[in-house]
Design brief:
The complex is a heterodimer.
Chain A lengths: L1 H8 L3 H24 L4 H6 L8 H11 L5 H13 L5 E2 L4 E2 H36 L4 H15 L2 H16 L15 H35 L2 H8 L4 H29 L3 H6 L5 H11 L2 H29 L1 H5 L1
Antiparallel strand pairs in A: 1-2
Helix pairs in contact in A: 2-14, 6-7, 6-9, 6-11, 7-9, 8-9, 9-11, 11-14, 13-14
Chain B lengths: L1 H27 L20 E6 L14 H7 L7 E3 L5 E3 L2 E6 L5 E6 L13 H12 L14 E8 L2 E6 L6 H4 L14 H6 L7 E7 L3 E6 L12 E6 L3 H9 L5 E4 L2 H9 L3 E15 L9 H9 L3 H9 L4 E2 L22 H10 L6 E9 L5 H13 L3 E9 H9 L5 E6 L5 H9 L6 H4 L4 H12 L3 H17 L4 E12 L3 E2 L16 E2 L1
Parallel strand pairs in B: 1-10, 1-11, 14-15, 14-16
Antiparallel strand pairs in B: 2-3, 4-5, 5-7, 6-7, 8-9, 9-10, 11-17, 12-16, 12-17, 13-17, 18-19
Helix pairs in contact in B: 8-10, 9-11, 15-16
The chains are: A mainly alpha, B alpha+beta.
Chain lengths: ~325, ~525
C-alpha cells in the first residue's frame, strides 16, 4: 500500500506510470474497435468477390492472414511482438510496419514542425495586434482572420490552392514524385510549402485567440502598470512583460495542436499526396490491416504522450511559479 | 542594440524572401518528365516514361488474388495470359498461339508460343501452364478465378509446346475466361511469397521499383514476345485525391489517368485535358433477392420494375452519363433494353402487379446501399426511393460504409441492393455464377430456375456464335420477364491524357493493356 502511494506521489514515476496506462488503454481500444468494424482483410481485399470463395478457400485465406486464431491470442501475440520490436507486417506493402513507419513518420514530423512554426508566426503577432487595442478595427481584422482560419475547411483551402496554382502558374510541386529531405531538399521543401501553409493557417486561429485572451488578461494586472510607471518602453513591455507572462496558455494550446498534427493530417496528406503517417493509418483501416493500424496508432499515442510530457516540462522553464510548487 | 537587432531581422527577411522566390521559381520550371535514365531508348520509338496518376497503389502483386482495379491494371502489364482480348473484346491468341477443340468439345489443345521467357530469364513452356492451371484450381491457393476452371478435369503437358485440357463438359466460355489476369501464367518455380515482392511475368513491362504508398514503376521488357513497347517505362504515381490528379495533369507532372466520376471528368475536360469516354461492361443494378420478404412474389418484382424510369435514375444520379442497359452488357451479346415487361415507366401496370400480388396497399423493401464504393450509389438509391414511393413501394434504405455493405452483400443479407457489378466479355462468365443453381454467387443473386440452368448449360455447350447469341437473348429475356433484378444502366470510364500522349486505346473492361502501344511525345 505504501509502495503504491509512494509511486502515486513520485514526481517522475507518476507521469510515466499514467502514460503507460494510457497506452495500454489505447492498445485495447484500437484492437476492439478495429474488430468491431464490419469486414476483415479478406473482404477488404476481394470486395464482393469474396462471396464466391469456397469454404476451403476461405479457410486458406484466414490462415494466411492469421484470422483463424482466437481474438485473445491475436491480441497478446501482437502485444508480445511489440516488446520485441516487431510491429507487424503489411501484406499490402510487403514491408514491416517498422519500415513503413520509418518512412512515413519523418514526413509527418516535418509537416507538423513547419505547420506549427507557421501557425506561431501568424497566430502570436495577430493575437498581440488584436489585444493591443480591443474592439478597434485592428482587433476586428485579427478576429476576422482568426475566424477565417477556424471556419475555412482545410480540404477546401487545399484543393483551391492546388487547383488555382496549377492552372495559372503551373506551380504544383506535389504533382511530382515525393522527395524526402535527404534525397532532394529543395523539392522536399517545395512539397511541404502548401500543406504547411494550409495546416498552419488553420492552427493559427486557436493560437491567435489564445494569445489575445491571455495578453488581455496579463495587461490588466498590477505589475504591468508598475512596469509602465517605471518607464519600460512599449515594445519591451509587450514582449518581456506581457507576452512572457501570457505564454503558459499559448504553450498549452501549441502542444495540444502539435500532438494532433503528429497523428497525421489525413485530409491534407491525401490532397497533397504526402506519404505521411495519417495516410498509413487510413490505408490500414481501409485494407483492415489490423497489426499495421494497431501499431501505428500506438506509436501516435506514444508521440502524443511524449509531447504532453514535454509541454509540462516547458511550463517549469517558462513559469517560475510552477517550478516553486 | 535595437538597431542591430533590426538590421539582422531585415537580413533574415531578405533571405527568407529570396528563398521563397527560389522555391516558387524552381517549382514553376517546366515539369520535366524524368525518364530515369538518359540511355538511348530502344529502336521501338520515342521512349520516355509515362506517369499515370492513380488514387491508390495495388493491394497485392499476386495476380491470382488481385481484384482491385489498380492491382489488375498494373499486373496485366507485367503478366501474360494464354488468351487475350482485342480492343473489341474478341478473344485473340496470347501465350497460346492457336488452339483446337475436339469435335465432342471435351478436349482443348493449346499450342504455345515459342521463345517466350519470364522476367527471370527462364523459358515459358507447357509445364508452367499445367502448374498454373492446376494451382489456380486448387482450393488451398484461394485463387479468385478457380471457379472459371470448374469444367476442367485435368491438364496434360503433352510436349513442351502443347497443352491438352480435358473437360468434363463442353465450355464455350473457357477461352474468354483464360484471358483475364487472374489466370496469369506463372513460372512453375515461383511461389506466392516470392511473387508478392518480385513479380515474374511474360508481359510487355517489368517491375522496376515500388515505393510503398508513393509509386510503382515499370520498365519495358525487352524480351517481350510481341511488339516492343514505345515507352521506356510507366510510373503509377499515387495521388489519393482525384482533383489533385487533375491539378497534377494541368501542371504537366502526370500525363495519364482514368476516372469514373463524371464530375471529375468534366473538371479534367474544362482544364484542357483530352478526355475519352468508353462505355463499360460493368452495370448499375437494383439487385432483388427473390428468396426474401415480399420479393419472393414475382408480381412484386414486376411492379417494381414497371415503376422505375431508368433514364431518370441515370439523369439524376450520374448526370445522364451512361446508357440504359438490359442484363447482358458484352458488346457481342448485348441485351436490347426495350425487350422487357415495362420498357418505359408504367405506374398503372405497377399497381396492377401489386394488386395481383395481393398487396394493393404497397410493400416495404429493405435495401442496402454502399457509401463511397462508387460515386453515384447514394444518389441512385434516393432517386429509386422517390420513384418507387409513387407506386406505394417503400425502399427502406440502409446506407452503409463499404466494408459493412460488402459484409451484408456477401451474406445475401438484404431484400434489395443498389449495386455496381463488374461485367465480363463472355455472358457465361458474367452470369452463370449468379443465376445457375450451382453458381458460386447464386446465394447473393437470390434466384435460380430449372429453365435458366438448362439455358446456361446450352450456352456453354454451343460454340457457334449465332446460336450462342440466340441462347443468351433467351436468358436475358427470362431474367427480365421474371424481374430477377432491375438492370438500369452502364456508365463510362474517362481516360484523361495530356496532349503529348498518343496511341492508347481504352477498353470496355477498363483494361490498360494498350499502354504497350502508347507513346509520349
Amino acid at each position: 500500500m505504501n509502495l503504491v502511494r509512494a509511486v502515486a506521489s513520485h514526481r517522475v514515476l507518476r507521469p510515466v506510470i499514467s502514460a503507460l496506462g494510457t497506452l495500454l488503454g489505447v492498445a485495447v481500444f484500437v484492437f476492439v474497435m478495429l474488430r468491431a468494424i464490419p469486414g476483415n482483410q479478406i473482404t477488404a481485399g476481394l470486395g464482393t468477390e469474396a462471396a464466391a470463395l469456397t469454404p476451403a478457400q476461405q479457410a486458406a485465406l484466414e490462415a494466411y492472414y492469421g484470422l483463424d486464431k482466437p481474438l485473445v491470442t491475436q491480441f497478446f501475440n501482437w502485444l508480445g511482438n511489440i516488446f520485441t520490436g516487431n510491429l507487424g507486417f503489411s501484406s499490402r506493402a510487403q514491408q514491416s510496419v517498422l519500415e513503413l513507419t520509418a518512412q512515413s513518420l519523418p514526413v509527418t514530423l516535418e509537416l507538423a514542425v513547419f505547420s506549427i512554426v507557421l501557425a506561431l508566426l501568424i497566430g502570436i503577432p495577430l493575437g498581440m495586434l488584436s489585444a493591443s487595442r480591443p474592439d478597434s478595427p485592428r482587433d476586428a481584422f485579427g478576429q476576422a482572420v482568426g475566424l477565417m482560419g477556424l471556419s475555412i475547411p482545410s480540404f477546401l483551402l487545399a484543393t483551391a490552392l492546388l487547383a488555382i496554382l496549377s492552372a495559372t502558374v503551373r506551380f504544383n510541386p506535389n504533382g511530382q514524385a515525393f522527395a524526402y529531405f535527404s534525397e532532394d531538399p529543395l523539392l522536399n521543401l517545395q512539397q511541404m510549402l502548401l500543406p504547411s501553409l494550409v495546416l498552419g493557417f488553420g492552427i493559427a486561429a486557436p493560437i491567435m485567440r489564445t494569445t489575445r485572451t491571455a495578453v488581455l488578461e496579463v495587461r490588466g494586472q498590477d505589475f504591468i502598470r508598475t512596469a509602465r510607471a517605471k518607464g519600460v518602453g512599449p515594445r519591451r513591455l509587450q514582449v518581456r512583460h506581457v507576452l512572457k507572462n501570457a505564454l503558459v496558455p499559448i504553450v498549452t494550446m501549441t502542444g495540444l495542436q502539435f500532438g494532433y498534427l503528429l497523428g497525421g493530417a489525413v485530409v491534407v496528406e491525401q490532397i497533397f499526396s504526402l506519404p505521411g503517417i495519417g495516410r498509413q493509418v487510413l490505408l490500414g483501416i481501409q485494407q483492415k490491416e489490423y497489426a499495421l493500424v494497431q501499431s501505428t496508432v500506438l506509436l501516435i499515442a506514444l508521440a502524443f504522450v511524449v509531447v504532453n510530457l514535454l509541454t509540462d516540462l516547458l511550463y517549469r522553464i517558462i513559469d517560475p511559479r510552477v517550478r516553486a510548487e | 542594440m535595437i538597431a542591430g537587432r533590426r538590421a539582422r531581422r531585415g537580413t533574415a527577411v531578405a533571405v527568407g524572401l529570396s528563398l521563397a522566390g527560389a522555391l516558387v521559381l524552381s517549382g514553376c520550371a517546366p515539369a520535366a518528365t524524368s525518364t530515369g535514365s538518359a540511355a538511348p531508348s530502344g529502336a521501338a520509338g520515342a521512349g520516355g516514361t509515362l506517369v499515370v496518376g492513380v488514387t491508390s497503389e495495388p493491394d497485392t502483386l499476386f495476380p491470382w488474388k488481385a481484384t482491385q482495379f489498380q492491382a489488375v491494371n498494373v499486373l496485366q502489364n507485367i503478366y501474360g495470359t494464354l488468351t487475350e482480348f482485342d480492343k473489341d473484346l474478341n478473344v485473340v491468341p496470347g501465350l497460346a498461339e492457336s488452339w483446337d477443340t475436339s469435335s465432342d468439345g471435351l478436349t482443348l489443345t493449346l499450342h504455345l508460343r515459342k521463345g517466350v521467357t519470364f522476367d527471370d530469364g527462364s523459358a515459358f513452356d507447357s509445364a508452367d501452364v499445367k502448374f498454373s492451371l492446376d494451382k489456380i484450381k486448387e482450393e488451398a491457393t484461394a485463387a479468385v478465378a478457380a471457379a472459371s476452371l470448374a469444367s476442367v478435369k485435368s491438364v496434360d503437358a503433352t510436349d513442351p509446346e502443347t497443352v491438352t485440357v480435358h473437360l468434363s463438359a463442353p465450355d464455350a466460355g473457357l477461352l474468354a475466361n483464360l484471358g483475364v489476369v487472374n489466370m496469369a501464367m506463372l513460372s512453375s518455380d515461383d511461389t506466392e511469397a516470392a511473387l508478392n515482392t518480385t513479380p515474374n511475368g511474360t508481359g510487355p513491362f517489368t517491375l522496376k521499383e515500388r515505393k510503398a504508398n508513393q509509386s510503382l514503376s515499370l520498365v519495358r521488357n525487352d524480351a517481350y514476345w510481341g511488339d516492343k513497347t514505345k515507352l521506356d517505362g510507366v510510373e503509377f504515381r499515387v495521388i489519393p485525391d482525384e482533383s489533385s490528379i487533375v491539378s497534377a495533369m494541368q501542371s504537366g507532372n502526370v500525363q495519364f489517368a482514368v476516372f469514373d466520376d463524371p464530375l471529375v471528368a468534366q473538371t479534367a475536360a474544362a482544364a484542357g485535358l483530352a478526355v475519352a469516354k468508353t462505355p463499360q461492361l460493368s452495370y448499375h443494378v437494383l439487385q432483388l433477392n427473390a428468396r426474401k420478404g415480399p420479393l419472393t412474389d414475382v408480381n412484386v418484382r414486376l411492379a417494381m420494375q414497371c415503376a422505375i424510369d431508368r433514364q431518370q435514375v441515370l439523369d439524376t444520379a450520374a448526370a445522364g452519363e451512361g446508357e440504359i442497359t438490359g442484363p447482358i452488357t458484352s458488346p457481342a451479346f448485348r441485351s436490347d433494353p426495350n425487350s422487357r415487361p415495362c420498357p418505359t415507366r408504367d405506374l398503372t401496370k405497377a399497381a396492377e402487379y401489386l394488386a395481383k400480388a395481393g398487396k394493393p396497399d404497397g410493400v416495404t423493401i429493405k435495401t442496402i446501399v454502399s457509401q463511397g464504393e462508387y460515386s453515384t450509389s447514394v444518389n441512385e438509391a434516393q432517386n429509386l426511393k422517390a420513384q418507387l414511393a409513387e407506386a406505394k413501394i417503400t425502399l427502406d434504405l440502409d446506407v452503409l460504409e463499404s466494408g459493412a455493405y460488402v459484409d451484408r452483400w456477401i451474406g445475401a443479407d438484404f431484400e434489395a441492393a443498389v449495386a455496381l457489378n463488374g461485367g465480363r466479355p463472355d455472358p457465361d462468365g458474367a452470369y452463370s455464377r449468379y443465376f445457375t443453381s450451382t453458381g458460386n454467387l447464386n446465394k447473393v443473386a437470390g434466384y435460380s430456375s430449372p429453365e435458366l440452368d438448362k439455358l446456361f448449360a446450352e450456352g456453354r455447350q454451343t460454340s457457334d456464335l449465332a446460336k450462342r447469341k440466340e441462347i443468351y437473348t433467351q436468358i436475358s429475356n427470362n431474367l427480365e420477364d421474371n424481374a430477377v433484378w432491375i438492370w438500369m444502366f452502364t456508365s463510362y470510364t474517362y481516360t484523361a491524357t495530356t496532349s503529348n500522349v498518343t496511341g492508347f486505346t481504352p477498353m470496355a473492361n477498363s483494361s490498360l493493356q494498350y499502354l504497350r502501344e502508347t507513346a509520349i511525345g
